Amino acid sequence: MKILIIRYKKTLGVPEGGEQGSEKNLIVLRQIAGEENVDTYFIHDEAHRRTMAEYLQGILYMPLGYYFGLTPRRVREIVTMAQAYDVVFVDRSVFGIVAKRLKESGYRGRVVCFFHNVEVVYFSAKYSNKFNPMRWLVVPCADRNDRWSCRYADRMIALSTRDDEELYHRYGRHADVLIPVAFVDRYRRDSYPTEFIGNPPLCMFLGAYFPANVEGIEWFVKNVLPRVTIRMQIVGKGMEKLKEADWMRPDIEVLSNVPDLEPLFESADIMVLPIFKGSGMKVKTCESLMYGKNIIGTPEAWSGYELDYAKAGACCLTTDEFITAIYDFCQNPRPRHNAYSREVFVNQYSADRMVEKFRAVLFR
Predict the structure, then answer these.
(1) For the segment 235-285, what is each residue's pLDDT rounded down to a tens digit?
(2) C-alpha separations of 331 from 69, 130, 360 in Å
(3) Which structural domains are found in the chain, ordered by start?
(4) H-helix or E-strand spanning residue 355
């Protein structure tokens, strides 16, 4: 079996959450079909800086359903390439136009579409300002491509029941299989840290500079931080921009574009994930589970994960709930490494557990 994967971008440096999920998909598909039988077509390459002409071209084609980077020429190129492959794996539903053109061309192989989220919901949150002209370009384009993915893909993969229900509500089709966010396990150890949570505890927020992340951490800094005694660390791609915010405090450490997150995860006592908007499952939650962290998150941060919140940390929505959870950690110190979180990851959200689910999508 030969597989062609259509991916968003080839990244330089630290990949964002969605690209980490894409990399996991690539690794699992290579496990199944063999590395020599899996090829990748990247829509973007971060080594190539987009020119103004390319940016304007992207805007021109977006009303026709071509998300940034795709053009009629490139889609024709993909359709031609696809004839040599048994499966075309469209790694994001925002490229649903690829599935549409493949089926219209008479492609005889299997088209599989992976929904990292419901793109129209994701972009509605990203461009929440109704006066932003990009909203009126991007959101309808995402909606079209989600619809085309549902109509033309032979097999659909969604992350969670929530996304599956959203897809059915909007487009009248359920996913063929649910495959949750997962990571290739990079934290296998013979032994894990045994230190207890510090006093005051070090709380870390992980996430790239993105509206839902910025809104969540701003809410936490304004409402929770003044009423608890903790050390605060914000880590994520592009987060240095927060240093210019009028609500940022000088005692908060902000780190951007960190090449190796493992030392930061090991030194953090608690992951705080105050996320209130979004779609799909939060990659930062899965990564925190992989490193065996105590996690205090909102229902949105936990969406799609099946576990005992109290054993992993806490599920909180209001200011008082966050304060109570943090206070409990301070008053009742426990190990910095949460063995339960790590166990949940290994048994439910490691890439090794996803191989058979992917195999079923490809062969049944």
Answers:
(1) 998 999 999 999 999 999 999 988 889 999 999 999 999 999 888 899 999
(2) 52, 44, 48
(3) 3-179 (3.40.50.2000), 202-348 (3.40.50.2000)
(4) helix 355-363
Helix (H, G, I), strand (E, B) or coil at 71: coil
Q: What is the DSSP string of 91-126?
A: S-GGGHHHHHHHHHTT--SEEEEE-SS-HHHHHHHH
CA-nearest of 40, 300, 344 to 182 is 344
**Nearest in space to 230 (alpha carbons), one of 255, 201, 268:** 201
Q: Are 232 and 294 in contact (CB under 8 A)?
A: no
Whether the Cβ atoms of residue 246 and residue 269 lie closer than 8 Å to each other: no
Spatial contact of 177 and 361, defined as CB atoms under 8 Å apart: yes
Beta strands (DSSP E) in 139-279 are 155-158, 177-178, 202-206, 231-235, 253-255, 270-273
pTM for this predicted structure: 0.90
Bridge partners (DSSP) of residue 353 are: none
Q: Which residues contact 84 (CB under 8 A, 6 or more apart)?
A: 2, 4
Strand 87-90 and strand 3-10: pairing?
parallel
User: String of b and e for 253-292 (b: at least 16 CB within 10 Å)?
Assistant: ebebebeebeebbbebbbbbbbbebbbbbbbbbbbbbbbb
Distance, in Å, from the CA atom of 60 to the CA atom of 146, rounded to the nearest integer, reads: 20
Instruction: Find out whether 320 and 288 touch, Cβ atoms under 8 Å.
Output: no
Question: What's the rounded Cα separation, in Å, for the pair 58 and 66?
Answer: 8
The mean pLDDT of 26-42, rounded to a whole number, is 95
**Which residue type, as a one-letter code, is found at position 130?**
K
Coil vs helix vs strand at 65: coil
- Dihedral angle of Cα 167, 275, 269, 201, to the nearest 10 degrees: -160
| Pair 357, 179: CB distance under 8 Å | yes
Which SS3 state, helix, strand or coil, does residue 191 take? Answer: coil
